[in-house]
């Protein structure tokens, strides 16, 4: 029985790490170590929930709901998932990683319960959802870009947003701050735009570089 539990823990950890490797490859917030620990911990909690109270079951008036501890994983894992979600200037990042961690916890619970087929199937489907769907539907939806640049030319403050709108970009937010530097006014602009084209970052940089008055600070 102990060896079976160890095999369950090992299997759960490996499946979690496989999902984490995909996130690591894409330089996401939670990588293979996080997913390994989430899946391993979920399997351990499921095993304890199912088999950890055998000694007291024979006592008078003692009952056991084997789902009561494992159920806490579903809500508890939300704290880890929330930690991977970042909201920066109206761009939300980390939602897919948070959902992946949540799914990984479910895989760990499956393996901990001895449901190997379901656990392997869920792992395969999770990887399909993370990789294959992003390739198949890469031309659907919009990608957000955060742009920060500065200029000393006041005329560009209106020209740049107009030009981006004319290039089929959707401007989500536009913020401008001004400060004095070496006796001149410097305008710092932060924009969030959306585009349907996935490989647009290089074009954005090239377009902004075409203005000699602009200094680019960030495009991501």
General description of the model:
By secondary structure, the chain is of the alpha+beta class. It has two domains: 2-136, no CATH class; 143-219, ACT domain (Alpha-Beta Plaits), CATH 3.30.70. Helices cover 53% and strands 20% of the residues. The chain has seven helices and six strands, in the order H-H-H-E-E-H-H-E-H-E-E-H-E. The protein has helices spanning 2-25, 32-51, 71-83, 95-112, 116-136, 156-166, 201-209; strands at 86-88, 91-93, 143-151, 170-181, 184-195, 214-219. The chain has a four-stranded antiparallel beta sheet, covered by helices on one side. A hairpin with a 2-residue loop joins strand 4 (170-181) and strand 5 (184-195). It is elongated. The model has no long low-confidence stretch (mean pLDDT 80).
Furnish the topology, listing elements before pairings.
Blueprint lengths: L1 H24 L6 H20 L19 H13 L2 E3 L2 E3 L1 H18 L3 H21 L6 E9 L4 H11 L3 E12 L2 E12 L5 H9 L4 E6 L1
Antiparallel strand pairs: 1-2, 3-5, 3-6, 4-5
**Helical coverage, percent range:** 40-55%
Return the average pLDDT rounded to an integer: 80
* End-to-end Cα distance: 51 Å
Strand order of the biggest β-sheet:
4-5-3-6
Descriptive keywords:
single chain, 220 residues, alpha+beta, Alpha-Beta Plaits, two-stranded antiparallel sheet, 6 strands
């Amino acid at each position: 029985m102990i060896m079976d539990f160890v095999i369950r823990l090992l299997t759960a950890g490996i499946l979690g790490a496989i999902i984490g490797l995909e996130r690591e490859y894409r330089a996401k917030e939670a990588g293979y170590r996080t997913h390994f620990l989430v899946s391993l911990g979920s399997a351990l909690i499921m095993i304890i929930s199912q088999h950890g109270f055998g000694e007291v079951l024979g006592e008078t008036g003692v009952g056991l709901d084997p789902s009561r501890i494992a159920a806490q994983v579903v809500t508890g894992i939300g704290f880890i998932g929330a930690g991977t979600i970042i909201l920066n200037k109206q761009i939300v990042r980390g939602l897919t990683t948070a959902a992946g961690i949540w799914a990984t916890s479910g895989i760990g619970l499956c393996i901990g319960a001895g449901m190997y087929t379901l656990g392997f199937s869920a792992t395969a489907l999770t990887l399909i959802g993370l990789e294959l769907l992003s390739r198949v539907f890469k031309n659907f939806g919009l990608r957000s870009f955060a742009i920060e640049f500065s200029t000393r030319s006041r005329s560009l403050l209106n020209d740049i947003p107009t030009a981006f709108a004319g290039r089929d970009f959707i401007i989500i937010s536009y913020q401008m701050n001004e400060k004095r530097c070496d006796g001149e006014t410097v305008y710092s602009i932060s924009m969030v735009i959306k585009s349907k084209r996935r490989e647009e970052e290089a074009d954005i940089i090239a377009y902004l570089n075409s203005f000699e008055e602009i200094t680019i600070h960030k495009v991501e």
